Amino acid sequence: MSETFWAVVPAGGAGTRLWPLSRKGSPKFLHDLTGSGRTLIQATLDRLEPLAGERFLVVTGQAHRDAVAEQLPGLDPARIVAEPSPRDSMAAIGLAAALLERQDPTAVMGSFAADHVVTDPDTFRGVVGLAADVARDGLLVTLGIEPTHAATGFGYIRLGGPLAGHEGAFMVEEFVEKPAAALAEEYVASGSYRWNAGMFVARPSVLLDLLAAQDPDFAAALRGIAADPDTLDEVWPSLPKIAIDHAVAEPAAAAGRVAVVPGSFGWDDIGDFASLAALVPATDGLAVLGDASLVRAVDSTGFVAANGGRVVAVVGLDDIVVVDTGDAVLVTTRARAQDVKQVVAELGESRPELT
Amino acid sequence: MSETFWAVVPAGGAGTRLWPLSRKGSPKFLHDLTGSGRTLIQATLDRLEPLAGERFLVVTGQAHRDAVAEQLPGLDPARIVAEPSPRDSMAAIGLAAALLERQDPTAVMGSFAADHVVTDPDTFRGVVGLAADVARDGLLVTLGIEPTHAATGFGYIRLGGPLAGHEGAFMVEEFVEKPAAALAEEYVASGSYRWNAGMFVARPSVLLDLLAAQDPDFAAALRGIAADPDTLDEVWPSLPKIAIDHAVAEPAAAAGRVAVVPGSFGWDDIGDFASLAALVPATDGLAVLGDASLVRAVDSTGFVAANGGRVVAVVGLDDIVVVDTGDAVLVTTRARAQDVKQVVAELGESRPELT
């Protein structure tokens, strides 16, 4: 692994799908959601440290800067970049790229969300290392997760031909949107598709030049902020709100500039309580997060988070989801876990302090 | 209605089947479980006051005496009889009978548990009035509830022939235990059975003499306490622990000494959360007790008690039961509501302060 690998960690997210565990003021990356003893952002940095050493840039909202600094005492606070407001992933990752472009002309950067889970970090690092090697050749490189099921909640990457000189890497034929169930089945059965986990590796200037090819003003604005950080607050609100996938990855793939390194390392983005339940150790089918000594279960399977300090008793329920916190209790099922956002939307109107 | 009708109100119960709403230290009669604005014991006295005026005896545990007095500010505290320990219904009701036998030789007493619900109090009072008329003739009289379904959770009363001189009253052929489902169906289909709600009306001396016919020492001990109340603490622990049904009602029925007045007045003993759910007003199939402004429901039916001051969100669940309190949360279904007692039994070992 080259000494110039930098890990960029965007730490954002609305925190609505894991409510009431995560909140606007306390998004999921600040929580230990798997009972590992480390919060998701801590685990993200732990996982990348063998590659990046101290070369991190964490991009987060101003509201979360202090909490991030507190959770990462080993990180130089100057490595925490605070966004004045959320402007989606292109602005966040692009700003990091612009800063690194000036700071370290030899840098290869990889961007990894602060709120994902990887259960096999060794394999993960191997894949990232290969992606960094490819990125040095001037390509944008993405990681393609081997699908474990026909997920409809992720976008997919269609593999092209193998990449000469980099065994295990392929060109990207195209990125495709989240598919309907039947199409997802086809994708997985074909063997030619991987999940798009939104992890990109590139030389900073390559990333910014690819952006400039689509939106020169956007790239120039990011480079301008990096040249004069005092302009951040003024320029930031004018930046487009767009995901890096749409701004760069899709057009670059169409132009033959994107490679993919497929891998299988137990990745999950914990998109809802059904995903989370699968990541938490279970006894007799019941996964328990928080203080397990508070949980009393009779003939029940599913997921219980006991984070409210109170006893949580569950009797005769299958695939139940119960989340107890100090000011709110959620009861749903694995199958309906996505619909928690309806509750959060309503509370945003009636009790915004709880969201 | 004669001016000598006395209402005896046994206020006891273990409080395990409605945990965590009710507790050992705060049994269900102390709670407003139907959202009526009155606790069950308050509603019980409200319902009987047109018949009994101020002639009440409330028999409760010493631990609950202060709470009962506080909830019934209009009741002369001397009318609250505190049992030194729980010794089942024969001791509690028999002590009241012995006290009344000395206090008012013209008394007819009716015994009505403090934790039952009656939704049609006018009809209830009419039935009790008729029972009191019959009781003056020297019979033990019970109220027989018209079954609304083939319940397996109640004992039944088999009607005998009509009672001459008291239209609407019948002799009791026999009391039968809680039946299995098929037998309950037969009972209800026959038209000859009524639910035994444990409500008895009799002249105190008749009740005590019927007891004496079975257990002369027991009756003598109760009359001895009434003659010298200072002996209560000493004598009480030696009294048999037996239900009034077994001690008196069943043998008296076999001896042709028990009448029944059938009636239909919306009676329920709130034996579990399934019963309670049916008594609480529902919107779109979801019954809410406590602070309804805390409840957020999406596609859900069943019962939610929001007694913990926190938001309770329920998403995509049918016939769910969620009970939120300050120190415990219960999640179950209407069908499994009876199994809450398993949790309470376990907590009795591990966290007795919560039971």
From TrEMBL, chains A, B:
Which keywords has UniProt assigned to this entry? Nucleotidyltransferase, Transferase
Q: What is this protein called?
A: Mannose-1-phosphate guanylyltransferase
PANTHER family per record:
MANNOSE-1-PHOSPHATE GUANYLYLTRANSFERASE
The organism named in the record is Nocardioides bigeumensis
Q: Which InterPro entries match?
A: ManC/GMP-like_b-helix, Mannose-6P_isomerase_type2, NTP_transferase_dom, Nucleotide-diphossugar_trans
Would you say which domain of life the source belongs to? Bacteria
**Residue stretches making up the Nucleotidyl transferase domain:** 7-278
Q: What is the lineage of its organism?
A: Bacteria, Bacillati, Actinomycetota, Actinomycetes, Propionibacteriales
A single GO molecular-function term is: nucleotidyltransferase activity
- The answer to whether keyword Lyase applies is no
Q: Please report the stretch or stretches of sequence annotated as the MannoseP isomerase/GMP-like beta-helix domain.
A: 297-347
Pfam families annotated for this entry?
Answer: ManC_GMP_beta-helix, NTP_transferase
